[in-house]
UniProtKB/TrEMBL annotation:
Keywords: NAD, Oxidoreductase. The keyword Oxidoreductase applies. It comes from Glutamicibacter bergerei. InterPro entries: Gfo/Idh/MocA-like_OxRdtase_N (IPR000683), Gfo/Idh/MocA_oxidrdct_glycsds (IPR050463), GFO_IDH_MocA-like_dom (IPR055170), NAD(P)-bd_dom_sf (IPR036291). Residues 9-136 form the Gfo/Idh/MocA-like oxidoreductase N-terminal domain. Gene3D superfamilies: Dihydrodipicolinate Reductase, domain 2, NAD(P)-binding Rossmann-like Domain. This is Gfo/Idh/MocA family protein. Residues 147-279 form the GFO/IDH/MocA-like oxidoreductase domain. It holds the Pfam family GFO_IDH_MocA_C3. It comes from the Bacteria.
Amino acid sequence: MLRTGSALGVAVIGHSFMGKAHSQAWRNVNATYDSTLVSMRVLVGSNPTSTAESAAKYGWEESSTDWRATILREDIDIVDICTPGALHAEIALFALAHGKHVVVEKPLANTLAEAEEMNAAALAAAERGVISMVGFNYRRIPALTMAQRMLAEGRLGQLRQLNIRYYQDWLVDDSAPMTWRLRKDEAGSGALGDLASHAVDQLRFLTGAQISSASATSRTFVTERAGDSGPEQVSVDDAIWATLELDNGAIATVEASRMATGRKNSLRIEVYGSQGSLEFDLESMNFLKLYEASHDAGEQGFKSIMVTEPEHPYLDGWWPTGHVLGWAESFTHEIRDFLAAIVSGIPASPSFADGLAVQRVLAGIEDSATQSGARVKVAGAN
Ligand code: SOE
């Protein structure tokens, strides 16, 4: 529970890629926004030497290899989970049970059963004023937050088609070594949980609709990779392709791959409605493209809005007009919103329930892919 009169104490569990991104957000949030003061107390990892080095580098007061003892500390109010997915449920359940506010990197969990349990625990903890959130950071890219607001205002008319594809290529080389991200027991799934989870979250965020069914294909193009002690079987997908039905009548295609040669971190989103269209590309993340069918026929076309002005979402704390933001800033925005939820007591978004809803769609995609693309109803959908 909130201790009064002092900054909120934070512990981040995990200090690799996501731990680093989140550390930067915790470091910047007070400098950027007038948000609640935080103290970066403990960075937790499994290796004492590398965790201590990261802690010193990222600006943490201390490091630890014991996440349970860290969570139990009286001066820790917030637990930020940046570990591989296999640990999300255990750590989040422990932290919630001990009254700590919890933010978990996406996807919420590795399995549907874990996600259900985490959501139930978050709902119970909310009764005691404990806030929880899933870190789908792309919701906090100003251009995508703005797109969501335009869609909520009905600017595109009736939504009919969406296409979201998230491509990377870091696995394209057959000799790329084995990592935890390629083991089902550690990562849950491959491009599905890692990348398609963002796409599915964006679909839900942008449209406000639920996803009712899925038809999908998945592939593991390279089935064996070099592990520490010889060749190891890859147990997750390299890529997935899905057609999803939304309960607002729209159809969406979602593609995710870590084998799309030349695409380093390419998230593209296209939304088509009866009165207009929107287009976003993560590689040009300061822009949102808008097509409005109401314009004179001779002047129609996509206009490129530069989402860098003080009136745009999240821009108030940053730089003067026209100064672009980057990928890392989406995490600072995420942490700002999480702190605002803690202070106001208003539930944070995306909630664990949103994380569970995404997980159900991922499970539907996986089920369909194992049944040669047969259309599968998403659990919980009408
Ligand atoms: C790795 O593929 C990864 O870091 C994802 O896990 C992140 O969620 C995405 O933002 C970038 O790529």
